[in-house]
Structures are given as C-alpha cells and as structure tokens.
Amino acid sequence: MEKGIIIDHINMIYSGIVGTFEALKDINLDIRPGEFICIVGPSGCGKTTLLNIIAALLKPTSGRVLIDDRKIHEPGPDRGVVFQQYAVFPWLTVRQNVEFGLNLSANRRSEAETRRIVDHFIELVGLEDFEDSYPKELSGGMKQRVAIARAYAVNPDVLLMDEPFGALDAQTRQFMQESLLKILDQEKKTVFFVTHGVEEATFLASRVVIMSTNPGRIREVIPVEIPYPREAGIKTTPEFIRIRADIEKVVREEFQKQRDGSSSH
Amino acid sequence: MKSKSEGKAVDEGFKEKEKKDRREKLGYFLASFAILCIVWEAARAIHLVNPKLFPSILSVLKSCIVMLGNGSLQRHIYGSFMRVVVGFSIGIVLAVIFGFLIGWFRVIRLFLDPVINFFRSLPPIALIPLMIIFFGIGETSKIIVLVYASFFPALVVIYQSLVSLEPTYIRAGKTLGATDMEIFRKIILPQLVPHIITACRVSLGVCWATLVAAEMIAAQRGIGAMMVEAQNFFQMAPLVLGILMIGAIALIMDGIVRTIERRVTAWQEKLS
C-alpha cells in the first residue's frame, strides 16, 4: 500500500576541517500517498542527501522524516531504494537478486509465496528469459529493472530512486521511464525520484520539486497536471512543453546562480 | 530484447570457443615442455654443461622408475604433500579469522598493521634455525614454518579486500531490511570468496617454496630430503628428478586451485 512522506524541518550540515557546509536548509515537504515526486536541481544541491535521509542511510543534523505519521530511524524494507549504480548483487542470478529481500528475516514468507512474488515481479519487469543469468550478462537497463523488481518484492510503502536512469542511453531511458509508469500503474507506490533531467521529471512526476544550491533548499514546487497513464506521445503536446519550459526556466536560473557564485570565489 | 533461444545459441557458441581455447592452451603447454627437453639434451650433446654433472632425460626417467618401484619416491612425495596440506590449511584458516578481525575493526588494523608488515617481509626460512632449537628437527618445526609461510601473504590479501569492499551493496542490503549478520553472511562473504581463493594460490606457492628449504635442513622424508641424500651420494639423476617433482607438484596444486576458482567465481566479470 502506498503511504505519504512528511519531511519536517530537515537541516543537514557537514562540518570538516575547512569549515562547515550547509547541504540542506530547512527542507519541508508533504508528499501525499501515491504521489510521484521528482527532485531536480544543480549538482551539489543536496538531492541525493535528502534521499539518503529519507532512506535513513544518513542522519540529518536536525528535523525528522515521517512515513505514515511514524518517525523513521533506520533503513528498512518499508522504503525501497533504487541506486544509480544499479547495486544489483553480481554474485547472484536475476532470480536470486529479486528473491534476496524475501529471504531476509525481516520479510520472510513461505516458500510458495516467495516463488509467487518473485515470478510476478520478474514478469512485471520483463526478465522472464533471463532469470538464471548473472548481472554481468545483462545490459544497464536490464540491471536496473532487476533492481526495481528487487525493491518491489519486499512490498515497500515508498520507492526512493536516485538517478536510476542517469547512466542509460536516451532510447533505453525513455523505455525505462515508460516501463516504470506501467509498473506503478499496476502496483501503486509513493515515489521520490532524484534526477538531472527536466524532461524526465516532467514526464514522470505529479509534482516537480526544484532545489537551489548552497545552501540546499526548496526553491519551487511545480505540479504537472497531466493525467496518468502517460505515454511518450505526451512529450510533444503543448501542455507538456509549457510545463517543461516553466521548470527549465527555474532550473536554469539556479544553475546560473551556482555558476556566478562559484566564479566570484 | 534477446529471445531465449538466441541466448542459448550464444551460450553454446561461447562453450565451443572455450573448448577450442583449452585445446590451444594444451598444445602450447606441451610444445613448450618439448622444447625444454630438446634444449636439455642439446646442451649436454654440445657440452654446454658437463654431461657427467647433468644427467640425461633417459637416466632421470630410469631413476624415477626405480624409485617408484621400491616405493621411495611415493614416500617422499607423500611426506612433502602432507606437510604442505597441514601447514597450509592451518595457515589459511588463521589468516581468514585474523583477516576479518583486522579488516573489520579499525583499531586492530591500525595496531597490527606495522607488525604485520614487519613479519610479512621476513622470509619464512629465516625462522627455521630458531624453530629447530625450539621444537627440534621433527615435524612440528616444519609445520610451524609452513603455517607462517602461508599465513602472512593470505592475511594481507584478505584484509585488503575487506577494506576495499563496494559500500553500495551493503547499503542496498540495509534498505532491504538485512540485519548485520545477514549483511555479513549474504553480502560480504560472497564478495570475499574470490579473494580468499587468490590468497590460497599465493600462500600455496610460498608454502611449497619454503617446504623444500625446510626439508633440506633436517628430514628423513620429503622431496627436499631426497635431494640432499642424492647430493651426498653424488647421484645426479635423483637430484634432478627432485627438482622436476617440485615443479610438477606445484603446477598441479595451482591447477587444482584454479579449477575451484573458475567454478565458484563464474559470476565475476573477467577482463580477458
């Protein structure tokens, strides 16, 4: 079942020898159940830091994250993470990878149910013919589909995706975006998706959050009022182009600010 | 997307190529040893080496057959082999245990690193005189030297590989709900298996080299002892036979470890 995420006054300050760095400043965001949030912004704006805080792989300096009104403390199967570097276990086959979470004591099921779930998600991501292959035999897009199926198998409330399609070529990326929306259409989840691509964000998100850098804070939240299911065809509609341009404008301003800021140092 | 039948065809083509590769390798293997034999005999024929001091292939073969006949060759090989198996096994087990402790706990690593580097650079045979005084000339002193010989190279390989593990896999495991024990068993251990096998290969080599030196000093049994005996009686054929045996057995052992390696690391991406 999909659940909402409340990000409540999150601050993240890194202190090192050369001084302190404000990675995130007063981040507040209320994500409703079933929403698809995309985070865009210049590199260094703290997008991935924020994702890691929601995953509880990082502890914020102050503030809290609530999932379904429950404060989160440590990483857990209620928040599935898909990493940019795939992070598919290379020593396991596709099937064993998808099965991995289900064989952990935290989510153990009966053997029959495990098989049913694994079969279902392998089919959902279209890897039936490769279930006994090792990741080294798969393309980047296929590896990422394994990672998505693995995250899905333990039935998380929310999906956290950290530039999952960033390393893929344009055609594969387009295909993966459509596949992801199709999967979500069948298996609803709340999604928090970090990306560099404005077009990707516009295509996927129900709301796009644009961040500014140094300190990392939320600059603007732009809703994408295009109904799901969406297909690649919508990318040429005037509505899509208009929203994309709106987002692009703010992102470019932020990028410019960052460049001016760093050249004045 | 590739269809299943296509995948199978690719797989079969791959196997065919592998078979061909293996035949090619065997060919070169035999050819290089054949040339070695020719050079050996040629060197004797043109008196590059004194034929009285260096035996012919035929006489080495003859002494091999004689020694097999009276059982002495088997006895010597068995003696050496058992020492290596015992010493190497103890050394590797200890190296895995200490490798984990050192790789896992930073404090232990910082504390032990300098000491390890000191002992690592100490050749194992340097310990032999001390061990003979401590434990006499029996099996114990030889086994301890072999444990030492296999321990340090394996230890370094294992803890270095632990330090350089890919953190993303551990993070992925945590987000799926793995406990610390599950992360260790299901994520860290599988990644270490190839490194442990590499450690075995390195250690086995060092172990074997040390063994012969240890046996030359004090032993009634073993290939090293056999060679010292031959030297004392100026029997050139058994002496050269000993050298050949050492090489051959080391090669076979390495082959066995490599076969195991191929089996358990099929998932790894190979550069070649």
What this model shows, in words?
The complex is a heterodimer of chains A (265) and B (272). Chain A contains seven helices and ten strands. By secondary structure, chain A is of the alpha/beta class. In chain A, α3 runs antiparallel to α4 and α6 crosses α7 (238-263). Chain B is flat. By secondary structure, chain B is an all-alpha fold. Chain B is 82% helix and 0% strand. The longest helix of chain B is centred in the N-terminal third of the chain and has 42 residues, at 4-45. Chain B has helices at 4-45, 57-69, 72-104, 106-120, 128-135, 139-163, 167-175, 180-217, 223-232, 236-264. The relative contact order of chain B is 0.10. The interface between A and B is medium-sized, with 32 and 26 residues.
Distinctive features:
heterodimer, A: 265 residues, six-stranded mixed beta sheet, four-stranded antiparallel beta sheet, globular, B: 272 residues, mainly alpha, 0% strand, flat, disordered N terminus
Radius of gyration of chain B, taken over Cα atoms and rounded to an integer in Å: 24 Å
List low-confidence stretches of chain A. none
Strand order of the largest sheet of chain A: 6-7-8-3-9-10
**Which pair of chains has the greatest number of interface residues, and how are they split between the two chains?**
A-B, 32 and 26 residues
Helical percent range of chain B? over 70%
**Total strand segments of chain A:** 10
CA-based shape of chain A: globular
Task: Please indicate the percent range of residues of chain A in DSSP E strands (runs of 2 or more).
Answer: 15-25%
Please report the distance between the alpha carbons of the first and last residues of chain A: 48 Å
Proportion in helices of chain A: 25-40%
- Mean pLDDT of chain A, as a whole number? 91
- Biggest pleated sheet of chain B: none
User: How large a portion of the residues of chain B is in β-strands, by DSSP E?
Assistant: under 5%
- Radius of gyration of chain A (Å): 19 Å
